[in-house]
Amino acid sequence: MLEQISRPDFIIILFSTVCRTLMGxxxxxxxxxxxxxxxxxxxxxxxxxxxxxxxxKTIPNITYILIILIWLGQENSVSVIVFxxxxxxxxxxxxxxxxxxLSQTHDLFVVYPVSLKxxxxxxxxxxxxxxxxxxxxxxxxxxxxVCVMAEILGQVSAGIGRQMNIGRLNLDLxxxxxxxxxxxxxxxxxxxAIDFVQxxxxxxxx
Length: 206
Description:
Elements: H1 2-5, H2 10-41, H3 43-58, H4 61-72, H5 78-111, H6 116-154, H7 160-169, H8 173-205
Helix pairs in contact: 2-3, 2-5, 2-6, 4-5, 5-6, 6-7, 6-8, 7-8
């Protein structure tokens, strides 16, 4: 790890991989959460999207990677690949969570009817907030794995995946393990930061 940190382009390498991962992860979380909440509240929307969701789930991850690399090229494809692989995961989680909330609050809303706006803003969204943080932590861990794999296959100009691939070609196990440890360290730091924001949000809501 000390060998990597002494490189003049160390920050650029880390920054490239982190930005690609976070961009794909956050956008897929937003899209997956919105569509999951809609489908969780509407059986018609769920039945319309469910065949597409099942089709997406059956496609191997490597297929996404190869097709998007061919379509978009090396540099522009990594975040899109992260999005495509994480989106079905987030969508499924939010559909299940929303349906669970509806079943738990059904009797309450029958006795005390509220508008759809209040049901979303004052009940569902606050109850879904822990799911957002939990999904984001899960997505970051998965996102880094997907991002590095895409960087290796896409042979990007800068990124941890590129450095690990160079180490593989040179049979340099120390380099591969070193970059892997940096990846794990960054993932742990980001997940701890999410935990801190979650606790801060909880304290402010009291």
